[in-house]
Each structure stands twice: as structure tokens, then as C-alpha cells.
Design goal:
- The protein has about 625 residues and is of the alpha/beta class.
- Among the domains are: about 70 residues, Gyrase A, domain 2; about 120 residues; about 120 residues, Isoleucyl-tRNA Synthetase, Domain 1, CATH 1.10.730.
- Helices cover about 50% and strands about 15% of the residues.
- The chain contains 24 helices and 17 strands.
- The protein has a seven-stranded mixed beta sheet. The protein has a four-stranded antiparallel beta sheet with strand order 1-2-4-3.
- Helix 21 packs antiparallel against helix 23.
- The longest helix is centred in the middle third of the chain and has 22 residues.
- This is arginine--tRNA ligase.
- InterPro entries: aa-tRNA-synth_I_CS, Arg-tRNA-ligase, ArgRS_core, DALR_anticod-bd, Rossmann-like_a/b/a_fold, tRNAsynth_Ia_anticodon-bd.
- GO terms for molecular function: arginine-tRNA ligase activity; ATP binding.
């Protein structure tokens, strides 16, 4: 309990809750302190003296001090449940960072949800925190789209789609480049028609109209299938990547135009879940400001990187022998930073970016307000004419899939070795799979479906949202249906341990079973109805005798601050979910067994307990992205 911890902050004590069946509220492990003193009884008396105002009874059992707390006294501190001292450390929290070549699928959404919920936890904890979204606008996936539009002449606008014209455009390109194969047109036509058929089965349309869907679900998938049947086509992608990295040419300007349109649509999708950003960083800016050039110089000067001779030429590699744990995990002593052709690898760019975020690389980079979001805040972007400075981070939290664990370990070791006052955190998370029944709703007949953008096998967030909305609309009005699906999708992404693989099942949406979103919303609505009937709430009440249901609810309410501190320490959002289950259970037990309205004059504290439960639930709803409702 945070109140007891504050009073005993000078002692080395571990805290826990006693096992069920022991009639005490908190347990203090005193072994470490007992080892320091000869007079254990005096130490025990000193501890009890410091916390006596909050103690009704206590018992020492095998080094554990079990305490029964004074619940009436606890209630006098209810305002402190929501007060946290200002923490001046600056956190950069980066999440989403989806390639600007497609719409967001539910795997991306888990990343965004976890990131946004972490942001909200740190806001409650009174941290200084900035949210970043990194846009790889020069990478291979963007290049695939540009190749389709620039070289194969697939139209930029889906409204201009004409299959026969496109096939002829591709044929002309192949002839010009000596890539043409006899009768290749029929194979090309088959690829297009099969993809159009799949989209019809998945979403009900053949050609997506929404720009991010058109590029991600159609152009990107088609181009990758064309690589398989046209030998030599893929080599043009690397020329495009080179043009993108060099910038200021026709290809890079086309890429910028396409990426910007897709990005705006991605932001619109996330705004449905109230997910917003402070800063947008584009990889093209990292290249433009030559961050990697300075990073490489630092790495070579410090002996973290070295030049070696490879089979195809000179390489620059990261020396992993400096960090034995990384070397063991990666099963190699080196990681390539600069290839023989002089291009930088992904890990090289990641390191340069991380060094800039933490101020290890200094550049006079200015920012300017660019994109107006639906919450009326602007996203800042790098701009030579900008006038906004951003201080470097003390801590960076980077929400990136678990498959990047090795690379992220390398980035962490480099950053923290160069400046041990900085902290780099890779916040990994597991995949999202589709439950068999959910997959069938979208025309997919596999038991569990792993998302694959390259194969075109994934469920867009927009389409999932629309499908669930139509289901909810059969039972609820428009406003309530929207709140229910937002809350359901959010909670399904947040309720599990972050590294758990989610088996996404839309059949849970309208299930009132304890622990589901609609159960929490129903509990909140019950409290709201109760308070509306009660009228004005007196916050300066005299507290009468408390029964066991009231006492249990008070103890549960006062765990809220402890739970937030736990999330701060381990960054596990699902701890808040588990707490919400327990709090809802205790309130519903209280509601069912204790007369509240009928005895409000005799026991006014009961209404107050309902009010305090509502406030705590609203704080948790804010983090877990559950909507409040007046009734269900």
C-alpha cells in the first residue's frame, strides 16, 4: 500500500498482500531490516510507531508483519490517490511506425494501442513525455509501390483503374527493358484477377477506393507477385531505393506524394481510437541531415565499429564481442553496418536515429507544426524553416515487434555504452492471429491466420471496425455501438501480457462475461445510474461503521496508485486490466450486498464509495481505452 510505503521509505522492506484466508490487508517482509539490528523488538516498535495512524491490528509471523489497515483513515487520503510528483525526466515514446505503403492492419493496431496506453500511464504519473511516429519513407516496401506506379504505370488513383490498359503498360515496360516473356500477359492478368477476387471475398470490393487500402491491399501485393513471375523485375526496386535515399528527384517526389496520402489515412484510422502523436520523423530526414555519417564516426572512434574485408568488398561492422550477451543472442561476433556497395543497413540507421534521440549526436534540427490532428493538436515535423527545438530524451521507449529483439538489443547496448545516463528500452510485443471463426467472417478458412502484408493476407483496421460496427448496430444505437466496438477492440489488444500471441475473436464483443469490455462498461453504467439517483455527493462525510464489503472495496480502491507504480516499473499494461477485473468484482459484490440508496442518509459514505469507484474506473478506462457510458 503506497501510504505505508511513503511512511516507511527509509526502510528496506518488500510489500505484498497476504494469502486469502489471512485476515490482514498488507504484509511487510522485514528480513533485511532484522539482519541489520540486534534489537528486533525495538525495530518493530519503531515501524509501528511510524504507521500507527493507519493500523488497527498487526501480527508478526515468521518475519512477515501482517497489518490490518484502518479503512476510515485511508478514506481521508482519497485525494492523494491521484497525485504524483512531477518527474522531469524526458521520455520519447515511439510507437506505430508503420511503413507508409499500406493501411494499418490489426497487428499494427496492437503496437499503437500499447504505445498510446503507455503514454497515458506516464501522463497520469506526471512525466514529461513526447510521442513519436517514425516513417520509413525510403524503404523497400515504399519502393515496391513506387515501382508499380512509376515504372509499370499502375494508376495513382484507384478511380482510373483499367485492367487492360495496365497490362499493356506493363508489357511495354517489359519489352523496353528486355524482360518480356512470351504470353506473360495471361499470367499478369491472372495475378490481378485473383487479387481482385480475394478482396471481393475479404471486404466486398474488387478495387479499394481508400488510398491506403489501394496501395497496401492492391498495388503492393500485385507488385510482389509480379516479382515471382518476371525474372529481373525486382532489381529495379533497388535503383528506386537508391533514388529515394538520394532525394530531390522525380522518383523521390512521387514517393513523397504517395506516402503523405497514405500517412494521412493511417492517422485518420488511429484517430477513431483517440491515438495521436507529437512528432513525426521521416527516414528521409535522417538521411538528409547525415545523422548516420556522424554516428559512424562516433562508433569507429570509440572502437564499437571496425572495417573488414568481405567477399564482395570492404564492410563496416559493429563489433559484438564488446557485449557478450548480444554476441550469444545473435550467434555472431559482427553485425554489418555498411555493405560493400556503400549503403547503410537498417540497424545502422536505427543506431543513428537512437543516438540523435538521446542527444549523443548533436544537430541543429528544427521542427514546425505540420499536420492538424482530429484532437486539434499539431504533429511536428522537421523543417529547415521551423522555429521549434526539441530537447534530447533521457529515456526512450520503442514499441517494436519481438522479431526485432536482436537488433534492438544492439541499439540499446550502443546507446547506453556511449552515455550511461541514458536509457533505451525495446518494448516488444507478440503477434495478433485471427481466431478461426473470425477469419471465416472475412472469407478465410484457416484455423489461425498470421498477418502477411506481402501476401495480402491481413485484416485492415478500417474493415474490422466496419464489420464489428454493423454487428453491434443490430442491438444498439449508433453512438453506443461505436463505443462498444472501440472499447472491445482496444481491450482485446491490451488485456494480455504484451508478449502473448493474441487469438483475436470478435464473438467476445457482446459477451457480458466478467473481464470483457462490455462487462466493465455495464459496471460503470450501474455506478453512473446510482450516482444520478443519489443527487449531490458530499465529499466531506462522516464515516460510520464499515461492513466487510465496504472494507474490501476500500482496500481495492487504494491499490490504484500501487498498480500505476507497478506499470511504471514493468511496463505491463495488462496489470491494470487485472486490477480492473478485481475492482469491478469488489464493487459489484458491494452493490449486491449493501443497501446504498435506501440508507444514504444513515450511511452517506456508501454513495461516496460508489463515487470514488467511478473516478478510479475512469482513470483506468482512460489508459485501457474503454469508453464511458450512461447506460447499456
Amino acid at each position: 500500500m503506497w501510504i505505508i510505503k511513503e511512511l516507511l521509505k527509509d526502510y528496506d522492506i518488500e510489500y505484498s498482500y497476504p494469502p486469502r484466508g489471512i485476515d490482514y490487508d498488507i504484509s511487510l517482509q522485514l528480513f533485511k531490516e532484522f539482519k541489520k539490528v540486534d534489537n528486533k523488538e525495538k525495530l518493530l516498535n519503531d515501524i509501528i510507531e511510524k504507521i500507527k495512524d493507519y493500523v488497527l491490528d498487526y501480527k508478526l509471523i515468521n518475519g512477515y508483519l501482517n497489518i490490518k489497515l484502518n479503512k476510515k483513515k485511508l478514506l481521508t487520503r482519497y485525494n492523494d490517490l491521484f497525485k504524483f510528483e512531477k518527474n522531469n525526466k524526458l521520455i520519447f515514446l515511439e510507437h506505430t511506425s508503420a511503413n507508409p505503403n499500406k493501411s494499418l492492419h490489426i497487428g499494427h493496431l496492437r503496437n499503437s494501442m500499447l504505445g498510446d496506453s503507455l503514454y497515458k500511464v506516464f501522463k497520469l504519473l506526471n512525466y514529461n513525455i513526447i510521442v513519436l511516429n517514425y516513417i520509413d519513407d525510403t524503404g523497400a516496401q515504399v519502393a515496391d509501390n513506387v515501382l508499380g506506379i512509376y515504372l509499370l504505370k499502375i494508376p495513382k488513383d484507384p478511380k482510373e483503374f483499367n485492367l487492360e490498359i495496365i497490362i499493356n503498360n506493363i508489357k511495354e515496360f517489359l519489352i523496353k527493358e528486355n524482360l518480356y516473356i512470351e504470353n506473360i500477359e495471361e499470367k499478369i492478368r491472372e495475378i490481378f484477377l485473383n487479387r481482385m477476387k480475394s478482396l471481393k471475398e475479404l471486404y466486398g470490393y474488387e478495387i479499394p477506393e481508400k488510398i491506403d487500402h489501394y496501395y497496401g491491399d492492391f498495388v503492393y501485393v500485385i507488385v510482389n507477385k509480379l516479382y515471382d513471375i518476371i525474372p529481373g523485375l525486382e532489381k529495379y526496386k533497388y535503383k528506386i531505393i537508391n533514388d529515394l535515399e538520394n532525394g530531390n528527384n522525380e522518383v523521390s517526389r512521387l514517393s513523397e506524394e504517395i506516402s503523405e496520402k497514405i500517412l494521412i489515412e493511417q492517422l485518420n484510422t488511429l484517430s477513431k481510437f483517440d491515438i495521436y502523436y507529437d512528432i513525426l520523423i521521416k527516414e528521409s530526414d535522417i538521411i538528409k541531415y547525415e545523422l548516420f555519417k556522424e554516428a559512424l564516426s562516433i562508433l569507429l572512434d570509440r572502437g564499437f565499429a571496425k572495417k573488414i574485408r568481405g567477399t564482395e568488398g570492404s564492410l563496416i561492422v559493429l563489433d559484438l564481442t564488446l557485449w557478450p550477451d548480444v554476441e550469444r543472442a545473435y550467434a555472431n561476433s559482427e553485425k554489418i553496418l555498411i555493405r560493400a556497395d556503400g549503403t547503410a543497413t537498417y540497424i545502422a540507421k536505427d543506431i543513428a536515429y537512437a543516438l540523435w534521440k538521446h542527444g549523443i549526436i548533436n544537430r541543429n534540427i528544427k521542427f514546425k507544426e505540420k499536420i492538424l490532428q482530429k484532437n486539434n493538436s499539431y504533429i511536428l515535423e522537421i523543417d529547415d524553416n521551423g522555429n521549434i527545438n526539441i530537447n534530447p530524451a533521457d529515456i526512450s521507449i520503442n514499441v517494436i515487434g519481438a522479431e526485432q529483439a536482436h537488433n534492438q538489443m544492439m541499439v540499446k547496448r550502443v546507446v547506453e555504452s556511449l552515455d550511461n545516463n541514458k536509457k533505451y528500452i525495446h518494448y516488444s510485443y507478440g503477434l495478433v492471429m485471427l481466431n478461426k471463426n473470425t477469419a471465416k467472417i472475412f472469407g478465410i478458412n484457416d484455423d489461425k491466420v498470421k498477418m502477411s502484408g506481402r501476401k495480402g493476407l491481413y485484416i485492415n483496421v478500417d474493415d474490422l471496425y466496419n464489420k464489428l460496427y454493423n454487428i453491434a448496430l443490430e442491438k444498439f444505437d449508433k453512438i453506443l455501438a461505436e463505443k462498444i466496438i472501440r472499447s472491445f477492440i482496444s481491450l482485446e489488444m491490451l488485456k494480455y501480457d504484451k508478449n502473448t500471441v493474441i487469438n483475436f475473436d470478435i464473438n467476445k464483443m457482446l459477451n457480458l462475461e466478467e473481464g470483457n469490455a462490455i462487462y466493465f462498461m455495464y459496471t460503470y453504467a450501474r455506478i453512473n445510474s446510482l450516482l444520478n439517483k443519489a443527487g449531490n455527493i458530499d465529499l466531506n462525510i462522516d464515516i460510520g461503521e464499515l461492513n466487510k464489503y465496504e472494507e474490501k472495496l476500500i482496500i481495492e480502491l487504494f491499490k490504484f496508485k500501487d498498480v500505476l507504480y507497478e506499470v511504471e516499473n514493468n511496463l505491463e499494461i495488462n496489470v491494470l486490466y487485472k486490477y480492473l477485473v478485481e475492482l469491478s468484482r469488489e464493487f459489484n459484490n458491494f452493490y449486491q450486498h449493501v443497501p446504498i440508496l435506501n440508507n444514504k442518509d444513515t450511511y452517506p459514505h456508501r454513495i461516496f464509495l460508489a463515487y470514488l469507484t467511478k473516478i478510479v474506473m475512469e482513470k483506468i478506462f482512460y489508459v485501457l481505452k474503454i469508453d464511458t457510458v450512461d447506460k447499456i
